[in-house]
Each structure stands twice: as C-alpha cells, then as structure tokens.
Amino acid sequence: MRRIADYYSLTKSGLVYGNLVTVIAGFVLASEGRGIGFGALAAAIVGMAFVMASGCVFNNMIDRELDAHMVRTKARALVEGRIGLRAAGIFGAALAIVGFAALAWGATMQAAALAAFGFFVYVVAYSMWTKRRTVYGTAVGAIAGAMPPVVGYTAAGGRIGLTAAALFAVMITWQMAHFFSIAIRRRDDYAAGNIPVMPVKYGIARTKASMVAYIIEFTLAASLFTLLGKEGYVFLAIALTLGLLWLLLGIRGFFVKDPDGDRIWAAHMFIVSLIIMVGFFAALTIGAVLLA
C-alpha cells in the first residue's frame, strides 16, 4: 500500500483535482444550451486528469535534486529513492498516453492539442528550463496552468475566441497571485533551492504590489463573461464581490512588516485564493446552466 501511495503522491493529486473544477466549468460554458454531452465531459475530465498527473510525475523527476534542498519536498518518493527514476518515467508516460487518447477520441482533437501544448509548457518550458533560470518562470508555469478550462471549453466543441481567451485570462491572473502567496510563505525554501521567484529576487514588498495588480486584472477578466453575454448580472455581482474581498486582503498585506506576519498573511491569501477559484468557477458553471 505504501508503494501505491508513493506513486499516487507523484501525481500531485490536489493540484489535479482543483484544476478539474475549471475543466468542468469550461465544458459547461461551451455547451450553451445544446445539452451537456456527458460522454465528452467524462472524456475531458479523465483525459485532463491523466495528462496533468503525468506532467506532475515528470515535474517530480526533473526536480528531484532540487527538492532535496527544500524542507517541504525533501521527503518525496523520488528524493528518498522509494521509487526509481525509470519506474517513474514509465508511470508518467502511461498516464500521458491514456490522457491524450481520452481527449482525442472521447472529446475533440483540438482539446487534445491544447492539452499537449500545456503539457509541453509545464514539463519542458517551465520545469526543465525557466524555473531555475528566471523570475519569469512563474509566468511560464501559469501559462500551462491556464489551459485546463480552455481544454474543457474546446472539448465541448467551443472554438478558440473571446470566451476561451477570457477563461485563459482569469486563470493566469488568478494563478500569479496564488503562486506569489506560496512564494512568500516558502521564501526560505526557494532561496535554499536557488529558485529565482519574485520574493527571493526582488523582495516581498514588490511581490505584494504585483499580487494586488494581478487581483485587479483577475476581477476585470472575470467581468468579461457578462460583457460577452455568457453570464448574467448575478454572476457579475458574485465575481466582483469575490475580487473585491480578495483585493482588500491583498491591500492589508502592505500594513504587515515583519517576516512572521508576512508568512501568516500569505497563508491567508493562499487559502482565500483557493476559495476564490472554487467560488468563481462554481458560479460560472451554475450561471451557464441557468442561462442555457
């Protein structure tokens, strides 16, 4: 059982499950009164779950030496040798094959292609290249993380256009503020691993300012769905309320000056950002169903 748990841990299941909420929202939004194709939806969920899990396995493989220097990751299965590199690679490849096959045959080829793009960005552009070399690695990783709702949207037959762009914009701006809260909380870990995240390279004050800017951009992007006629004014009120509450907490961070206070504030920002994501995409899904 421990060995199964170790393999499961390589998939970063919390990240996968969280992103599946966005896949479902994108799919329902694209259905637009045509009725939800539950077969295609199931394929989108399974396909993206396996593709994301595969990406996380390869990320673990690439980061295994780096993880050994960080407190929160030094006990991972690959770091401690409980799973071999070859076995992990076979596991990751098998997950990818199943995931892409489910998307291509059960949903649409466009969804599979977009998932492949996100996979490449996460594994190659982010994990293998930019994460260790530039402060912009966070933005590159966010590009990959913004693909799940777009994949869900195209899995239901939606075309790449303004609505898909709005989904991408919401997700990428949310991620930047979310990731920066993690970077502040784990600043010492990232510094020990020599990872040039913004709090390490430019300091916490500049990171806080960037977080506030991204929260404002998130709120503006969230309003696009009503402006595009995809959601009603109740959804708009919910989205703006969520954005305002998040913004107020973000501004509160400027009044925190000591390191311990920064970590506590960042922990609150992390939790609230998760609530914001679930609340936003739940409202998006319910609103799309009610307007269908």
Structure description:
There is one protein chain. The chain is mostly helical and 292 residues long. It has 15 helices and no strands. It has helices at residues 2-10, 13-31, 38-62, 64-67, 77-80, 85-106, 109-133, 137-145, 147-155, 162-185, 187-192, 198-201, 204-227, 233-252, 259-291.
DSSP strand content = under 5%
Measured as a percent range, the helix fraction is over 70%
Shape: flat
Using DSSP, what is the number of strands?
Answer: 0
Low-confidence sequence ranges: none
Query: Could you say which structural class the secondary elements and strand pairing correspond to?
Result: mainly alpha
Helix count, per DSSP? 15
Calculate Rg over CA atoms. 19 Å
> Major sheet: size, sense and barrel closure?
none
Task: Give the overall average pLDDT.
Answer: 93
Series of secondary-structure elements, N-terminal to C-terminal: HHHHHHHHHHHHHHH
The separation of the N and C termini measures: 45 Å
